[in-house]
Design a protein that fits this description.
Number of helices: 12
Distance between the termini: 94 Å
Oligomer: single chain
Shape: globular
Strand order of the largest sheet: 2-3-4-5-22-19-18-15
Strand content: 25-35%
């Protein structure tokens, strides 16, 4: 065993520190004022830098060429070191890093004197006799821990021990199963005593473990630890002080979420059933789309399960179309496109030994090799023994891209579903190329799925440079958000999974992956009972990825019309989803620029309210909508906590509530409890039924104007890469109440020509109706009859039942204009 107990030497190289202890050696970078890197090794020297996760660096890396279009090189903060009797200190402007001599440990203090991180003295960095490395951190009684990527259970992972490892978790339990499909070794430490959040990211793809006060020892008091199976202990401290700050700075380091096509927020149909039909699976899927339309259910895509690749022996052979099931793939894709539906076919990186294309991949040395590097590795896969494509190899990526272009992209496909890519290769010593560095699969296993997504993105960009890729991944590593939307794999059909899928998604959002979801209705298991199915859809419509997907074990198929007497509830929920797509798309742009999650835990928005630190099941959709779905069987009453610091507007009853209290409301099968945060703006398009074929030419803005607020609506063409050239439009709407009423200022910036012809404002009026409404200096006509108002192009109407003013006008051509809503009371009695 090796332990870093005493500091032996420290050298200031201006850009970084070199530190030698009696255990490990360390290199410290002050990357910027929010991020401090501490890289430790128990070897005599550091190995060459190699990270597939980082997009912000200050050093040379063997992946620099591969990630050249993504990575930003910065100059680190120059180090000025101050020595005292017991420690050295360096500062980055916001934080002071103390390096204690004997015992050796690191401590980080903010500018107000708060200790925001402290290693466990005398046990800070350890390597055991099996070569496993540990980093121990002190903790207190008031710490909450969030993030850790894709994890089961409640949002706060205090008292949890969690394994970082990718596995195919068919039928997983959302309350208890661990590990799952994705590995993101990052967490947020929220100290509720001083209301300060910070983060730690461990830049290693080795299998690892987090223990968050599950283990106890009286000799060491309270601590957490990170343990990894090998490699460097490369830890990045991420500064706060808010949870929002930590997530933003972490995604500065590992990347923001990709801008997917707008249609990715539509309903994506899916089931394994159709592609397992003996023949004419294409006709069955086209019929599914037509049945959606007959039932007035919007649909914008279909995830094509892997049965489309089945050979004569029934096994899956990726890139191999089964012509009995799909006689003319290109024509099939074109017919779907005419109906406004994209196709996302399933592809898998394991190639069975009987695969017809196996030899080409062998000749190109595209596979993971065995530990002796003298043959291609063979391991168990779905369907039998298989080779695995090496996505850290340029030859592996190029060969994969060649077949993707030939089999899929040439048929007009620009959406890819990357599945079964956990790389459960049993021999961790199998060899991979690692950009010519030559490493083991145990060092890079979760990276494979992320680079598989990058290969798909690059293939589509090369073959269809004008088309924006839509990628979905099951597995992934830190940084997967740069390439793909993700989903939490093959969940089981149960009330437990409906409920606990919520914190799984929220934890992913806090881990930098803003665009994700879970299979609605459950993938594995029996057909969901009617109530469970309705509740799952009502909850799923708020997930960035919305797909009803099933592989039921009782010869059934989960479809929106499975229960005819309940289809109306499914339809209403999906239509609500579609009405919010302008809001979702603007939230995606925020995720792509700021890293903010789309689905947000309450503590993300209301960190100052101690009552929400443990809340796992209520959440915010963006900054404005609180969602408190019914997640229990046979509920007729539901208790809902409304965070303090604001008032809340019940979207169903139009009743206002003070924050900081728990209310109880009646619920029935149609209930989708939603509360609008006072001082909010939510863009909607209530007439949208298909993102591909319908223009959003009418935009409705739901506005609660009791406090000053703003929101930026993002628009582009939703399908191309022109937004990267500046072809987008940002419309900032500012709402400011005063003694006379409400002023709504609109300012547009950007070159994209909006398709919106009509604007309708839905302004909530808590006390009195407006007296007048003006656009600039023009007063709009008031209508006392809704029947007359709904047929007009310009004017306003007060809806007394919902206490709202509906204001409609033609979208002005000028980029800056103002809407004035006057609330003076007109005296009708006095003369």
């Amino acid at each position: 065993m090796k332990t870093s107990r005493n500091l032996l030497n420290i050298k200031n190289n201006d850009d970084y520190l070199d530190i030698k202890t009696d255990g490990a050696n360390f290199r410290v970078y002050l990357l910027d004022e929010n991020i401090i890197r501490i890289r430790g090794t128990f070897d005599d020297e550091f190995k060459p830098e190699q990270s597939y996760a980082l997009v912000k660096t200050a050093w040379e890396d063997t992946t620099d060429e591969l990630l050249a279009n993504e990575r930003k090189k910065v100059t680190p903060i120059q180090i000025q070191m101050v020595e005292k009797e017991d420690k050295y200190t360096v500062q980055n402007g916001k934080y002071a890093l103390h390096i204690y001599k004997a015992p050796f440990y690191f401590e980080i203090v903010d500018k107000y004197g708060n200790v925001v991180h402290k290693d466990l003295p005398r046990r800070s960095f350890v390597m055991d006799d099996n070569g496993r490395e540990y980093h121990y951190s002190t903790m207190g009684d008031t710490n909450k821990f969030y993030g850790f990527g894709e994890k089961s259970g409640e949002l706060n992972k205090f008292k949890r021990r969690m394994r970082m490892h990718n596995t195919d978790s068919l039928g997983w339990n959302a309350k208890k199963s661990d590990p799952l499909y994705k590995m993101i070794p990052f967490y947020i430490n929220f100290n509720t005593e001083n209301n300060i959040a910070t983060g730690l990211f461990y830049n290693t793809a080795h299998d690892s473990v987090f223990d968050m006060d599950c283990e106890h020892s009286n000799y060491w008091l309270r601590y957490s630890y990170f343990q990894c199976d090998g490699g460097d202990l490369d830890v990045f401290f991420i500064g706060g002080p808010t949870i929002k700050d930590v997530v933003e700075h972490y995604t500065d380091l590992t990347g923001k979420s990709a801008m997917m096509p707008m249609s990715s927020f539509g309903y994506m149909g899916s089931t394994m059933f159709y592609t397992e039909l003996e023949k004419d699976a294409d006709k069955a899927i086209l019929d599914f789309v037509d049945t959606c339309k007959k039932n007035d259910i919007p649909c914008d895509g279909f995830f094509l399960s892997s049965g489309y690749t089945s050979g004569k022996d029934g096994k899956r052979y990726v890139f191999n179309w089964n012509k009995k099931r799909f006689s003319n793939p290109q024509k099939f894709v074109e017919e779907l496109e005419k109906k406004g539906v994209l196709l996302a076919p399933n592809i898998k990186p394991g190639m069975l030994l009987t695969h017809p294309f196996k030899k080409d991949f062998e000749q190109n040395k595209a596979y993971v090799r065995n530990q002796n590097n003298d043959d291609d590795q063979v391991d168990q896969y779905w369907g039998g023994a298989a080779h695995f494509v090496d996505f850290t190899s340029p030859k592996g990526r190029e060969t994969w891209k060649k077949y993707m272009k030939r089999s899929l992209i040439s048929n007009g496909i620009s959406s890819i579903w990357n599945d079964n890519n956990e790389y459960e290769i049993n021999d961790d010593n199998a060899r991979v190329d690692a950009e010519g560095q030559g490493k083991t699969i145990g060092e890079l296993k979760p990276v494979m799925s992320t680079m598989m997504a990058k290969a798909a993105k690059d293939a589509i960009n090369e073959a269809m440079p004008e088309k924006r890729p839509y990628l979905v991944n099951r597995a992934g590593f830190a940084g997967i958000q740069r390439y793909a939307q993700t989903w939490a794999g093959d969940n089981y059909t149960s009330w437990t999974n409906l409920k606990y899928n919520v914190p799984t998604i929220l934890g992913m959002g806090l881990s930098g992956v803003a665009n994700q979801g879970c299979d609605i209705g459950g993938f594995d298991g029996p057909l969901p009972e009617p109530e469970l199915f309705v509740r799952w859809v009502q909850n799923g419509i708020f997930q960035p990825r919305f797909s009803i997907h099933s592989c039921n074990t009782d010869n059934t198929v989960t479809e929106p019309w499975t229960y005819p007497n309940y289809t109306k509830y499914i339809r209403d929920a999906i239509k609500l989803r579609y009405s919010l797509i302008p809001y979702f798309y603007s939230l995606l742009h925020i995720a792509a620029t700021k890293g903010e999650p789309i689905m947000r835990p309450l503590v993300y928005e209301f960190q100052n309210d101690p009552a929400v630190a443990e809340e796992s099941f209520e959440f915010m959709l963006g900054p404005s909508l609180l969602i408190a779905n019914v997640l229990e069987r046979d509920q007729v009453q539901k208790q809902i906590y409304l965070p303090e610091g604001t008032k809340w507007f019940d979207m169903k009853t139009s009743k206002y509530y003070d924050g900081g209290q728990t209310i109880e409301i009646p619920v029935d099968l149609s209930s989708i409890p939603m509360f609008l945060r006072c001082g909010s703006i939510v863009p909607q398009s209530k007439e949208l039924n298909n993102v591909h074929n319908d223009l959003i030419n009418k935009l409705e803005l739901m506005i609660e104007p009791s406090t000053e607020t703003s929101f930026t609506i993002y628009e582009d063409d939703g399908v191309s890469n022109d937004y990267k050239k500046g072809e987008f439009l940002e419309t900032k709407v500012r709402v400011k109440p005063d003694s006379d009423g409400v002023n709504i200022n609109v300012q547009r910036e950007g070159s994209y020509q909006t398709k919106v012809k009509t604007i309708e404002l839905e302004v909530y009026c808590s006390k009195i109706a407006p007296l007048t409404v003006r656009i600039e200096q023009e007063e709009l006509d008031r209508y006392l009859s809704y029947e007359k108002f709904k047929d007009t192009n310009s004017g306003w109407y007060f809806d007394g039942e919902k206490r709202r003013a509906l204001i409609r006008y033609a979208n002005p051509k000028q980029n800056i204009y103002q809407v004035g809503v006057n609330f003076h009371v007109k005296d009708l009695i006095s003369i």
